[in-house]
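Handout for the seminar on molecular recognition.
Each group receives one record of this type.
Step one: identify the two inputs.
Step two: read the structure output and locate the region that could contact nickel (II) ion.
Step three: write two sentences on what you found, then compare them with the reference statements printed after the record.
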Amino acid sequence: MKLVVAVVQDQDSNRLSSALTKNDFRATKLASTGGFLRSGNTTFLIGTDERLVPQLLDLIRDNCRSRDQLVAPVSPMGGNADSYIPYPVEVEVGGATVFVLPIEKFHHF
Amino acid sequence: MKLVVAVVQDQDSNRLSSALTKNDFRATKLASTGGFLRSGNTTFLIGTDERLVPQLLDLIRDNCRSRDQLVAPVSPMGGNADSYIPYPVEVEVGGATVFVLPIEKFHHF
Amino acid sequence: MKLVVAVVQDQDSNRLSSALTKNDFRATKLASTGGFLRSGNTTFLIGTDERLVPQLLDLIRDNCRSRDQLVAPVSPMGGNADSYIPYPVEVEVGGATVFVLPIEKFHHF
Ligand code: NI
Ligand code: NI
Ligand code: NI
């Protein structure tokens, strides 16, 4: 058994949850912020057999991979019109930080 | 030292907290959801000496064990009367998922 | 790689966050309560190279060390005037509980 701790951006969290359920992985989710990723993220705790870790990592990568996304311009609201960018901007979104931890014992009551 | 991570249903969380305190275990609690257990659960982090792990697991099992419970019927509220069940139903409640992790170093400042 | 789990009082949490960022450590923060420390604390998850663990522990100790603090008297509000203490009181604040966990694999997507 391994305990996989995955920190995932909130915008990818629901998609990853669904993918985990479809593939019979069970996860506990904790709301978290900052640091590894831009703030607003979810920390998944997933206990799994060692032989399923590669499949689980594939699922995380496929659903949370860091990628560029075009963001539509937001018109300035009562603010600094100098900072207004009148065309879509490419920003990096997503990404996951994953730790695979050894487990000495696993129990289910 | 071991780090025991226990995911426990919310309805058992306060009883487990009290039992841990009475037995001199110190726990940090994190609100969590989904996955291992029906949503609405609490993740306990408990650092403890290796020799106390069996006592701790007993406490978790005794306070969080999965069991059947009779749930009184709830009268339908402005809803689908077809789904109304006019007698108590047995549902499974409780249960805990527990990981015992090795610790390389423990510090208290 | 190690995963450092640090439970820190809320009043030291922002200062530690800033110190971590200045020193190029990336942390995920989870709101937590009780147990190891008086309730209202933050659990930091920090992945780092083994050789940086001593520097990280120094940062945590320097920013969260348990210390005595004078607390100004609070005048009783509609309450028991018998319990009013008309002079500053020294209370212990701060403190951190830190677990260093081994990591088998670390991934960043
Ligand atoms: Ni990244
Ligand atoms: Ni179960
Ligand atoms: Ni202390």
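Reference statements: The first strand of chain A starts at residue 2 and ends at 9. Chain A touches chain B at residues 1, 3, 17, 20, 26-31, 45-47, 101-109 (CB under 8 Å).
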